[in-house]
Each structure stands twice: as C-alpha cells, then as structure tokens.
Design brief:
Length: 337
C-alpha cells in the first residue's frame, strides 16, 4: 500500500501524514570483559581504565532497523530529540520534551502552550534548523528517501508510524527512547481510564450496539469520514461504539479517512455523529451549510439530538490528547442524555 495515500495538508496544520511505521527495536550485544586488578600499580590501573572506556563506548549506542529498513546506530540515552510528526503528545506522555517539532501539527492542541518554547522545524522539514539544534536523534513521519538521506547526515534518524495504534506507538517509543517502563505504566493507567469511561457511558444509557461516525470538512467543500486517526480510534476501541457497514468496509482497506459526496452521508453516519469543527473559515462555512441543509436535518442522529461537536485539533491521536478525550467524551455526550 502506498503510505502516502490519504494525506491531507492544510496551511495551519498537517493532519495525519501517511504511516511510516513500527520500529523493530533490538539492542546490540553488550558483552563485557572482566578485568582482575591484582595490584594498584599504575600500569594495571591504566589498563582497567582503558577497558572501562571501551566498554562504555560500546554500550553508548545500539542498532535499530526502522520501518523503512534502515539500520540506524542510535545513542542509548538521547537528550536532544527532534520529532517531526503528528503525534508529538506521545513524547509528553513519556515525560520527554523535544527540542524541535512540527508546530503546525500542534496548533490548537490541548498541550500547545506547554510546547511554546520548542523550536519549530516547519513543514517541509527545515534541515538548517535541525543542524542548528545539534540534535542527537531525529524521529520523522515521512517515507521520502531523499529527505531521509539528508536528515541522516545531520543526526541519527528513524522513521515512525503515526498511524499505528496508541499501544503500538507508545511501546515503540518506549524502546526507542529507553522509556520502556514509563511507556508500560502509562498504557496500563490509560487502559484503566478508558475502561472506566466506557462503563460510565454504558451506565448512562448508551447501548453497546449503537454505531458512531466522525465527519469533518476540509477547504474546497471536501467532506470526510474519519476512520483510523484521532477521535475514531477512541470511539471504536474495545467496549466502544460499533461501525456502520460502509465505515467497516473502508477500514478494511487500511485507510485513515475517506472522502465522500454529500449524498453518501446518510449511508455512512451512525446512531451518533461527531463533527470535528475545522479551523479554516472556508471549511467552517461548508460545515454550517451542511448543518442547515434538509439532508442533515433528516438524519436520525440529528433528529434524536445525538450530534456532538469538537475542535478538530483537540481530537488528535497522540497520547496526551487521548487522555484529554477520555475525560472530555462523557461530558460532551452528557449534553444529549
């Protein structure tokens, strides 16, 4: 499958760049040599120090094969990380503040203010800024091999799948950044929060057989059904809403979203409709036009009052936004109960 498929860009935000995927992370052998110190003679001490230096140097790096097949020598404890992708909040969940990011991807995000001082690497990736930041690791969600070769000359570079599931991404980043324990603990805590959220929603009267759909507009009067990124990942998680048949069929094709005509909307939408409100004034106008239309007012979900609006940039896929969504979804849906 072409990983560039279903990529949408906007001046204010790159929304869901195509997947570049899971890193198969395996540590290099760290075989050590035992040194016996029979005396404190200068010569023996010198040999011990040399052995220790050699051992430290050997353990300071490890090899990884990234999704694109590159074998990359990485530092064991990277400190100055550039993350160029759409799930920047994954790093925050692990307690990591990168030195450079794609700021267009966090515009309007729930954690935007926390990253105000982080350098903007831009979109496309600004290589000169990366050089100035003196990074020791670059994580990039892009399968452009020409760009990769340029970046790999600046610092060790790996590709990362921002379309992967939340558990997959966190596990990968945990291994990549030496935060395996933190990643596992975060996932366990989050899973408990998500389970409790669904129990609460079921107790409020929402049936486990109900379907849901997520829609949004992009400039040019382009209507999209969101499938496998951001809010839908939560809605369709274990214990969550069912998919309508057209959504299920589209998901089986492995795409993150699908563009449809207005006439197709009744076929795709479910018992509950979530509208991601865009930032573009043009797209906002198109959204309003739909909501004012007879077609929209005739939908069962609309008649039942089961329509929910949420800013598109808050409903992101990253770990930090997902935590926010788990807390926000019950409050949002309580308005229709």
């Amino acid at each position: 499958m072409n990983k560039q498929k279903n990529r949408l860009t906007q001046p204010w935000k790159l929304m869901m760049v195509a997947a570049l995927a899971a890193l198969a992370l395996s540590a290099c052998g760290n075989e050590t040599n035992s040194v016996t110190k029979p005396s404190a003679s200068p010569e023996v001490s010198s040999n011990v120090e040399k052995a220790e230096v050699t051992e430290n140097e050997a353990s300071a790096v490890r090899m990884f094969k990234d999704w694109s097949g590159h074998d990359v020598e990485l530092p064991n404890d990277p400190k100055r990380i550039i993350f160029h992708g759409e799930t920047t909040g994954d790093l925050l969940a692990l307690g990591i503040m990168p030195v450079g990011i794609m700021k267009a991807s966090i515009s309007g995000a729930v954690f935007e203010e926390r990253m105000a001082v982080v350098e903007d690497i831009g979109f496309p990736f600004n290589v000169e800024k990366a050089i100035a930041l003196d990074s020791d690791l670059i994580i990039v969600a892009n399968n452009d091999e020409e760009q990769y070769q340029k970046l790999s000359k600046v610092a060790p570079t790996v590709t990362f799948d921002t379309f992967a599931t939340l558990p997959e991404r966190m596990a990968t980043l945990g291994e990549l950044l030496g935060k395996e324990k933190e990643a596992q603990e975060w996932l366990e805590k989050y899973k408990q929060q998500e389970t409790e959220m669904w129990k609460s929603l079921r107790a409020s009267g929402i049936s486990d057989e109900e379907t849901a759909s997520v829609i949004t507009f992009y400039p040019g009067n382009r209507l999209f059904i969101m499938l496998a990124a951001g809010l839908p990942q939560l809605l369709y998680s274990e214990g969550g809403f069912k998919m309508t048949e057209p959504i299920k069929n589209s998901m089986s094709e492995g795409v993150g979203f699908v563009e449809i005509s207005m006439e197709k909307l009744p076929e795709f939408v479910g018992d509950r409709i979530f509208v991601l409100t865009p930032e573009s004034e043009e797209a906002k106008g198109d959204t309003k036009a739909l909501i004012d239309s007879a077609l929209w007012k005739g939908l069962p979900a609309v008649k039942n009052g089961y329509v929910y609006e949420m800013p598109i940039n808050k409903a992101s896929s990253d770990a930090t936004s997902r935590e926010w969504l788990v807390g926000e979804l019950p409050k949002l849906m309580a308005k229709s109960q």
